[in-house]
């Protein structure tokens, strides 16, 4: 038995982890734009990355290390993705690390921002040289990695095990746009003092990604820099595999839901729950199709319970389905029931009321099996166009 309790705090609340964020002049606004995570005890590290074929230089740099390497330092910059920068992008990362006056073990760099621009090496080196590696400001770090985010994204849990031991696990992340299943335009750094084996770290990351970061969509675009990184310094000496997997799931779910809710200009966070499909794969196909559909997203923005857009997307997904078995609901309000039109004035008014909420479910009962999957999305409105029309400025 174990208990998992949410607690207040940032990554620096976890034994052995230090972090901070500063302004290095990367953002014209002068806001914080460069941060770090440091631990005096080298960490096991595992990560999952974007499936975009054009992976950014920081990802390629990470993958040059030997499998199951350890690290004690992660450097994170915003405003510049260091993507589509060729071999020079990797060389620039090495130049930065070779310029820092710290005892670094297999240092890692992570970047987010505009694609296609070389890193401003001088600004990053000057900023990083000013780091105090004993600093403890997870709040500053959370602000430094933001791009179009409306707010910082963090969470923290303490896991109490049956033998009286405990460990902590927490995360900081960024992500609001260019979010699509197969990760997102997102960076997520998860730290723990659990004594978790490296192989369990990788397994848990992959398993939990499918129902969290790989189940969200803001706009249907997949970035070049998407990263979910897990660092474990093992200082607590506490571990239970089942407890760890569940705690990691909670952390990743929290971060994924914050990203959907913060979709650039979004006002609605919606769960697309597909049930009774003939296979999990088909349920997943439909749920993700619904979370990606621009027509569905704009209907959500307009608070229009147009079930025709839902039904059309299900049929277009080419899964096994039948009008005579399909049921569509907004929360508990049924608008289509196995070939019967339920969308009269009364039901439409009830459904419209549901769509005025900030959060709700669109439930699609395929009625042909017993498999299910839930994807998460948001509405898409004028603000999204405004933000992305002038992103580089």
From TrEMBL:
The keyword Acyltransferase applies. Signal peptide: none annotated. Pathway: Amino-acid biosynthesis; L-arginine biosynthesis; L-ornithine and N-acetyl-L-glutamate from L-glutamate and N(2)-acetyl-L-ornithine (cyclic): step 1/1; Amino-acid biosynthesis; L-arginine biosynthesis; N(2)-acetyl-L-ornithine from L-glutamate: step 1/4. It catalyses: L-glutamate + acetyl-CoA = N-acetyl-L-glutamate + CoA + H(+); N(2)-acetyl-L-ornithine + L-glutamate = N-acetyl-L-glutamate + L-ornithine. The record marks 184-185 as: Cleavage. InterPro entries: Arg_biosynth_ArgJ, ArgJ-like_dom_sf, ArgJ_beta_C. Its main location: cytoplasm. GO terms for molecular function: L-glutamate N-acetyltransferase activity, acting on acetyl-L-ornithine as donor. Substrate binds at residues 147, 174, 185, 264, 388, 393. Coiled coil: none annotated. It is found in: Cytoplasm. It is an enzyme of class 2 (transferase). Keywords: Acyltransferase, Amino-acid biosynthesis, Arginine biosynthesis, Autocatalytic cleavage, Cytoplasm, Multifunctional enzyme, Transferase. Pfam families: ArgJ. Its EC number is 2.3.1.35, 2.3.1.1. The record marks 112-113 as: Involved in the stabilization of negative charge on the oxyanion by the formation of the oxyanion hole. The keyword Transcription regulation does not apply. HAMAP family: ArgJ. Catalyzes two activities which are involved in the cyclic version of arginine biosynthesis: the synthesis of N-acetylglutamate from glutamate and acetyl-CoA as the acetyl donor, and of ornithine by transacetylation between N(2)-acetylornithine and glutamate. PANTHER family: ARGININE BIOSYNTHESIS BIFUNCTIONAL PROTEIN ARGJ, ARGININE BIOSYNTHESIS BIFUNCTIONAL PROTEIN ARGJ, MITOCHONDRIAL. Belongs to the ArgJ family. This is Arginine biosynthesis bifunctional protein ArgJ.
């Amino acid at each position: 038995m174990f208990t998992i309790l949410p607690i207040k705090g940032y990554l620096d609340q976890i034994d052995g982890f230090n972090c901070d964020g500063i302004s290095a002049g990367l953002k014209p606004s002068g806001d914080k734009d460069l941060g770090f995570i440091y631990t005096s005890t080298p960490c096991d590290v595992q990560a999952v990355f974007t499936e975009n074929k054009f992976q950014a230089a920081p990802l390629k740099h990470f993958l040059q290390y030997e499998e199951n390497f350890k690290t004690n330092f992660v450097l994170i910059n915003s405003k510049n993705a260091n993507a589509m920068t060729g071999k020079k992008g990797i060389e620039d990362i090495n130049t930065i690390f070779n310029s820092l006056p710290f005892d670094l073990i297999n240092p890692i760099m992570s970047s987010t921002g505009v694609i296609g621009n070389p890193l401003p090496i001088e600004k990053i080196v000057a900023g990083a040289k000013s780091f105090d590696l004993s600093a403890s400001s997870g709040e500053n770090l959370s602000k430094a990695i933001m791009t179009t985010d409306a707010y910082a994204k963090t969470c923290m849990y303490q896991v109490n095990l049956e033998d009286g031991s405990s460990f902590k696990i927490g995360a900081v992340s960024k992500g609001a746009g260019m979010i699509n299943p197969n990760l997102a335009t997102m960076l997520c750094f998860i730290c723990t003092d659990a004594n978790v084996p490296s192989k369990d770290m990788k397994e848990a990351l992959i398993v939990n990604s499918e129902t969290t970061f790989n189940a969200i969509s803001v706009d249907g675009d997949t970035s070049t820099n998407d990263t979910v990184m897990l660092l474990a310094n093992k200082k607590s000496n506490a571990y239970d595999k089942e407890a760890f997997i569940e705690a990691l799931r909670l952390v990743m779910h929290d971060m994924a839901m914050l990203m959907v809710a913060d979709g650039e200009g979004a006002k609605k966070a919606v769960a697309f729950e597909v049930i009774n499909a003939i296979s999990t794969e088909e349920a997943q196909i439909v749920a993700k199709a619904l979370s990606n559909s621009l027509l569905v997203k704009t209907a959500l923005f307009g608070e229009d319970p147009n079930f025709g857009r839902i039904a059309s997307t299900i049929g277009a997904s080419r899964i096994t389905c039948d009008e005579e078995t399909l049921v569509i609901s907004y929360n508990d309000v049924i608008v289509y029931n196995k070939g019967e039109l339920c969308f009269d004035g009364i039901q439409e008014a009830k459904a419209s009321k549901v769509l005025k909420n900030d959060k709700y479910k669109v439930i699609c009962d395929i009625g042909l099996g017993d498999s299910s999957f839930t994807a998460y999305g948001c509405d898409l409105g004028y603000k999204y166009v405004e933000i992305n029309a002038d992103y580089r400025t």
